[in-house]
Amino acid sequence: MRATRPFTLALAGATLFFAAACSSGEAGDSAAVDEAEMAAEPVTSSASTQGQELACFVRGDAEGRPSPLEEVEFALSGDAALLCYGAPSARDREVMGALVPFDSPWRMGANEATALHLSFPATIGGVAVEPGSYSLYAMPGESEWMIHVNQNAERWGIPVNDDVMAADVGTFTVPAASTESMAETLTYSFEPHEEGMGHIVMEWENTRIEIPVHHSGAM
């Protein structure tokens, strides 16, 4: 069964259309669940970042996903961006160093690859990118994370193998800080700074990282 849930967002004078269809599966769930999701018929988006219509790529049924699809919409210098990710919860499990192992690639969410859709040229952690869609994955460490920017955004989030890594645009490192309180569910947000500049902020369990995103026109 295929389902979509459209909605519109008025952002920086433009109206964005998002179509999303959800499936079950979560970071730390069994390989069988992920294999079943990967076999599901993909729901691809025909939206264009050039036309400022941004959408999440998703697979499978719209209901019953343990780690729901979440979106963060933001704008830099009046141009639109969209971050898509699956949001797992700790549920009494140790997360960093256990559910999310250190020194191993992690999709930075659940289900599909965590994806950043940009309608403008930008730098992500200093990595220059053109308008388009990019996936993000990480190599977490206790005090520092390496973030990979990847050209292939329309894919299941695992495995992060040699074929996936071959599509990397670039990498950068960010420090791992502590949250003020326990974050039960993986959450991303956007914090603007100067004109055309800001950080994507990830918080889960007791860990916080910030990913700089700058509009190329603001540099």
Secondary structure layout:
Layout: E1 7-11, E2 14-18, H1 31-39, E3 42-43, E4 58-59, E5 69-76, E6 79-86, E7 110-118, E8 122-124, E9 127-129, E10 132-139, E11 144-150, H2 162-165, E12 168-175, E13 177-192, E14 197-215
Antiparallel strand pairs: 1-2, 3-4, 5-6, 6-7, 7-10, 8-9, 8-14, 10-11, 11-12, 13-14
What does this molecule look like?
The structure is a single chain. This protein has 219 residues and is mainly beta. It has a domain of 150 residues. The protein has two helices and 14 strands, in the order ββαβββββββββαβββ. The strands form four sheets. It has a six-stranded antiparallel beta sheet, with no helix packed on it. Strands 9-8-14-13 form a four-stranded antiparallel beta sheet, with no helix packed on it. A hairpin with a 2-residue loop joins strand 8 and strand 9. The radius of gyration is 16 Å and the shape is globular.
The value of Rg in angstroms is: 16 Å
Give the strand line-up of the largest sheet: 5-6-7-10-11-12
- Compressed to H and E, one letter per element, the order equals EEHEEEEEEEEEHEEE
Largest sheet: 6 strands, antiparallel
Uncertain residue segments? 1-50
Arithmetic mean pLDDT: 82
Shape: globular
Terminal CA distance: 46 Å
Q: Count of helices? A: 2
Helix/strand/pairing class, anyone? mainly beta
Q: Beta-sheet strand percentage?
A: over 45%
- Could you tell me the number of beta strands? 14
What is the share of helical residues?
Answer: under 10%
